[in-house]
Every structure is written in C-alpha cells, then in structure tokens.
Amino acid sequence: MAETVICIYRVARGNEQAFTRLLERHWPVLHELGLVTDRRPTHYRGAEQDGRPLFVEIFEWKASDSSDLAPKHPDVMEVWERMDKLTEARDGRPNMEFPHVQVLEVLGKA
Questions:
Q1: pLDDT single digits (tens) 19-41
Q2: Residue 87's pLDDT band (boundaries 50, 70, 90)?
Q3: Which helix (H) or strand (E) holds 42?
Q4: Closest-CA residue to 8 (of 70, 104, 87)
Q5: Three-state secondary structure readout of the chain
Q6: Which of 48, 39, 32 is nearest to 103 (CA)?
Q7: Where would a tag sit more exposed on the chain, N or C end, judged by fewer CB atoms within 10 A?
C-alpha cells in the first residue's frame, strides 16, 4: 500500500539552485527503481521565520517498505548524500525530516 511522505529540507543559504537541481533528479531516480508511485511529486519553496530557505517535497512511496529499500541503492544514496551536504540543522531540528502521513478527509468529498 502506498505511503505519502512529506520531505522537509532546510537548505543552507546559497545552495538553493544546486538543491533544486537535485530535486529534479530525486523522484525520477526513485521512480526508475520502482520505489514510488506514478503520481508525480509536488514541490514547494519557502522560508523559515528568520528567512532561511526551506524546501518541501511530497510524494508517495509505492509500498510501506520502499523507504527501507531506497538507501540500499547507490543511485539513491548518491542523491541523498548530496542533499545532506546542501542542508543544515536549525534550532534543534535536523537538516531533513520525512514524516509519513495519511490523507485526512475533513471537508468530505467534492
């Protein structure tokens, strides 16, 4: 069963363009390996309250074990290691966070 993940990236100032290029590769690599669904990711760029860059990526893992399988593949790790170098921990929060979430029907179906 698919699992939605919200990836929160605290990108260090000056690394925004390089990080965007990595995001362009991230999902395609995961998709090529069959780890994510065909639903394309959504990406957001914003800022922390102090103005430091914050990026968000939302996509669906194909199965509950996909996030465990991903780090076993060198192509995935090459992207993730580069992402790690472009991000920074802030205010006691890690440089990257990956909460898995489920859709919550609050307003009902349209």
A1: 999 999 999 999 999 999 999 99
A2: very high
A3: strand 42-47
A4: 87
A5: CCEEEEEEECECCCCHHHHHHHHHHHHHHHHHCCCECCCCCEEEEEECCCCCEEEEEEEEECCCCHHHHHHHCHHHHHHHHHHHHHECCECCECCEECCEECCCCCCCCC
A6: 39
A7: C
CATH class as words, domain 3-101: alpha beta
Residue type at 86 in one-letter notation: L
- Structural domain boundaries in the chain: 3-101
61 φψ region: left (φ > 0), alpha (ψ -120 to 50), beta (else): beta
Q: Which position has the token pair 């922390």?
A: 48
Tokens for 6?
A: 């919200």
Please identify which residue in the block is written with the tokens 């309250």. Answer: 49
